[in-house]
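Course assignment 3, question 2. Fill in each field.
Student: A.L.
Task: Predict the tertiary structure for the chain below.
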Amino acid sequence: MSNYFYTAKSLDGKTQTGVLDAKDERQIAQNLKDKGLILIKAVIEDKKTDSKLNFSIPFLGVSSTEKIIMVRNMGVMFSTGLSLVKSFDILSIQTKNKKLKSALLDIKEKINKGESLSDSLAKYPNIFSELFINMIKVGEESGTLDEILRILSLQLTREHELKSKIRNAMIYPSLILMVMLGVGAVIITVVLPSLNVFFVSLNVDIPIYTRILLFLGTFLSVHWYLLFLVPLLLVVSFWLTIRTKSGKKAMDSFLIKMPVISPIVKKNNSAFFVRSLSSLTASGVALTRSLEIVSKTLSNYHFKAALTDASSKIKKGEKLSLALKAHQNIFPFGVIEMIEVGEETGKTSDILKKLAEFYEQEAVDAIEKLAILIEPILIIVLGLAVGFFAFSIIQPMYSSLQFINQ
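Answer field:
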């Protein structure tokens, strides 16, 4: 048994210190938890501990998988009674990501100096989202951090699964498109210049569309770098445009009205909206605050505006379902209706969870259907391109041979 000098946080956020006689940190954490306190740090009175901070500047981001593993491990360690300082020390050792390791070590030092966990996490908005931080804050204030970590782990896992399924569904069509562009580049820069020499040697008239095609091939065989430079400039210009408020709004308006893409955008944003709102309300975050947080996590401008508007209406006394009805054109059928049922039955949280699972699957199904639709379209486009190329080259070649025979 040793005397430990401890630092702990009460449920109202106040810091408390003292000395306890215990065999290890786990026993101290359990004793303090019984008193409604969260252990921040525990040090044997006659022992000094030094820690060094890693100031390396990482360039890679933190993947969702790494954050999921971190939250799961933190939940397990916290439930067993380990202090936050010790937990973050272990988490920093476990992770291989330099950026996350640096952040965890710094967070450990901040907690060690008396800062709350949520305030420490808030120093790293590029790693931990506002939704993440607010859920942790609620857990600290309510004394249910272990339950919040479980909900947060589920939230991150579901988001990761949805994004992964959508990404995987688009891999094959993307590969087909890349192969098409690669083959087209080879034909234009290698095949067409050779054919141009052939037609020039015949000294015969060729159709205008064939001359344009041959000129393009000859030009790009000399200025081949334009095949990479022009697409790159177009992509950068497009990216810079949608980074502006007006450009982002115009792009989101186009996507939400486009026949094939619109259902995917609506279901995808609805899935993220319902899942995030479910997690926040289950954690105890006020509905208006939850809507404000969720609005910042969504990608579409119109969904952001709808949730912000709904939050302001709820503050005036309206129900969520009624507040969202003004924007029912952007939500898939059933979202607002099911929320209304939840409000009437008092089971909004349960219905939100079921809705989240339903629309997550709907979003994945819509993407898979689009991927299946894209494949024959790309094949048709490829066939038309080959047909045009063949007609443009073979037809004047056949005419030239007839002229020679005469």
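Instructor remarks: Residues 2-44 form one domain. The chain has 17 helices and three strands.
Grade: pending
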